Amino acid sequence: MPEGAWYYDSLLYVYQNGIFSGTSATTFSPYRDMTRQQLWTVLGRMAGEELSGSGVFSAARAWTIRAGVSDGSDPTGTLSRQQLVTLLWRFAGEPTSLQGLSGFLDAVQVSAYAKEAMS
Predict the structure, then answer these.
(1) Which pLDDT does position 68 carry in this prediction?
(2) Are 101 and 118 in contact (CB under 8 A)?
(3) Which residues contact 85 (CB under 8 A, 6 or more apart)?
(4) Cβ proximity of 40 and 61 under 8 Å
């Protein structure tokens, strides 16, 4: 990863703290789409779960279902913005918001399941 990249400090932090381990033993791929199973792994690690090795994604899936963050479906599917926000919102304990979505041009495109999380 180039030291001058805008994400350098953040990437170094998540790597040093075992939150992200990269897309291989020697690479990170900050411009690739993230899959659901990758996010489950990150969130599980943030929650203190020991997730590594060959069965990492299966263990992350089991954790995310137990924690109520995801239903565990479509593990290799890439995340849309509303899916990402919804999973993060659930991980945060489903906090309430007084904000609406009316100020956003794409508000009508937000699915019903994601409206509260997106707000």
Answers:
(1) 97
(2) yes
(3) 114, 117, 118
(4) yes
Q: Is 41 helix (H, G, I), strand (E, B) or coil?
A: helix
What are the mean pLDDT values of the chain's consecutive 10-residue runs (119 residues total)?
Answer: 85 86 78 92 95 93 97 96 96 94 92 95
Owner of token pair 């956003």: 104
pTM comes to 0.85
Measure the CA–CA gap between 108 and 110, rounded to whole angstroms.
Answer: 6
**29 Cβ neighbours under 8 A, 6+ residues apart:** 22, 23
At residue 48, the pLDDT reads 94
What does each C-alpha distance from 13 to 9, 21, 48, 56, 112 come to in angstroms?
Answer: 6, 11, 16, 21, 35
Report domain extents, the chain.
1-32, 33-118
Q: Residue 78: beta bridge partners?
A: 35
